[in-house]
Design goal:
This is Protein DMR6-LIKE OXYGENASE 2-like. With 120 residues, the protein is α+β, with helices and mostly antiparallel strands. The chain is elongated and about 55 Å long.
Length: 120
């Protein structure tokens, strides 16, 4: 895993999500359940709740501290660690009062290059 993380090339993706107020939030999906494909995701939000993680088969609200970053492990960490570190299944829900904004920065590596190095 150390070798895979020390590659010179990699990828960063930044995504901004806007969740406007919804008059019937129970009928809407903010972001469906998913895990992130990369190594790690740094997430910050505007202080409006809406992020949930699946824990013990139940959706749990994540109450982030103001001005903080949440760090989620992604699919590539789970693959590279042989399942020791699990990818985080999460979703976003909407509310009927306030706009929610989240900023996610996904850090990834160039797996094609790493796999080619493993074969040689």
């Amino acid at each position: 895993m150390d070798e895979a993380l020390n590659l010179d090339s990699g990828l960063q993706i930044m995504t901004v999500n806007l969740y406007p107020p919804c008059p019937q939030p129970e009928l809407a999906v903010g972001m469906p359940p998913h895990s992130d494909h990369g190594l790690l995701t740094l997430l910050t939000q505007n202080g409006i709740a809406g992020l949930q993680v699946l824990h013990n088969e139940k959706w749990v609200n994540v109450n982030a501290l103001p001005y903080s970053f949440l760090v989620n492990t992604g699919d590539h960490i789970e693959i590279l660690s042989n399942g020791k570190y699990k990818s985080v299944l999460h979703r976003a829900i909407v509310n009927n009062k306030t706009t929610r904004i989240s900023l996610a920065i996904v850090q990834d590596l160039h797996l094609t290059q790493w796999l080619a190095q493993q074969k040689s």
